[in-house]
Prior knowledge:
Strand order of the largest sheet: 1-2
Mean pLDDT: 87
Number of domains: 1
Radius of gyration: 18 Å
Number of strands: 4
Helix content: 55-70%
Strand content: 5-15%
Order of helices and strands: HHHHHEEEEHH
Oligomer: single chain
Largest sheet: 2 strands, parallel
Structural class: mainly alpha
Low-confidence stretches: 174-185
Amino acid sequence: MARMSFLFVTVALALGLALVSGGSLRSIAATDLRHPSILALAVGIQLALEVLHPTHGTAGHLASALLVVSYVFLLLFCAANLRLRGLAVVAVGIALNGAVITMNSGMPIRAPKDAVETTTKHHAERPSDELTPLGDIILVPALRQSLSFGDLIMLVGLVDVLFHCSRNPATRRRVGTGVGIPTAA
């Protein structure tokens, strides 16, 4: 679960930024998400794989397939909610990570092999891996993990989503549709 620390730090900073700049948790909670069960299913699959992390044999192949399915579900959720500002950016990050994971049966991490715990989702970079510049090549020693460019793109989008969702829902609709915006006479 150490892998999730950067996501938690990002969400905490995004929420803090939203609140300090006049947003509210109530507005975030009032955000209408389409098909939240798809998101819950994708996150549930990834959490289960993180806990169980089968890596060998039939169970390992099934786990790799489920991981890819979870990324498809994440992209479906994003597609259903593209009206939320910033979610298209999140989708780009998810798609980049999903492509690398699909091509390599997991995310390659650029680090010494004995420094990487092999899980369903991660493994030390191998010579046979493809798209390695999009793998986990950005080391973050303070969090004891590495990140991909897809992670960074996704997290910038997440900050944008949370910031805009923290605003009054009525104001978001007016700005998004152009209705109710005062014009200069």
